[in-house]
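A reminder from the course coordinator: this example appears on the midterm review sheet, so study it carefully.

Given structure:
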């Protein structure tokens, strides 16, 4: 009964240090993964990335992406 009323807390010290070490490792891993994600996102958003319209894959860029090239907007008719 004495063991139940006064348990030994010898395991608490290493567990406390281990939990902080684990939290630090997870925080660093999250930071590295977030930085890599941001890098990929910014690289794909650049017009010269080659990943989308107007990139290095298309030498002419993205002609016609902003609408018709005739200068005047297309006639879609009147709104009701």
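Designed residues:
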């Amino acid at each position: 009964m004495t063991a139940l009323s006064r348990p030994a807390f010898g395991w608490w010290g290493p567990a406390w240090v281990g939990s902080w070490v684990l939290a630090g490792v997870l925080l660093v891993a999250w930071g590295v993964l977030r930085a890599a994600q941001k890098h990929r996102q910014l690289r794909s958003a650049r017009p010269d990335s080659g990943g989308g319209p107007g990139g290095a894959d298309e030498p002419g860029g993205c002609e016609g992406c902003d609408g018709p090239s005739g200068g005047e907007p297309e006639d879609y008719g009147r709104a009701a």
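Helices lie at 2-5, 12-45. The mean pLDDT is 73.
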